[in-house]
Design brief:
Layout: H1 2-24
């Protein structure tokens, strides 16, 4: 009886995975578009807002 229960559980799990991958557009044989690794992306700018000045192109002392 346990083998039948295991087979049924595996079938349910496979069904869930197939529905999830279909919903996400992950198809067999098609490369999944992953995010670039941190070394390939732009550098982290942190959480502080940009300061006025030559870096942002704004005048330091607006007139």
């Amino acid at each position: 009886m346990r083998m039948q229960d295991d087979a049924a559980a595996l079938q349910v799990a496979l069904n869930i995975v197939q529905r999830a991958t279909d919903a996400l557009g992950i198809l067999p044989g098609k490369p999944f578009p992953a995010r670039p690794s941190p070394s390939e992306g732009p550098p982290d700018q942190g959480h502080m807002p940009a300061k006025a000045g030559p870096v942002t192109g704004e005048p330091v002392h607006p007139t």
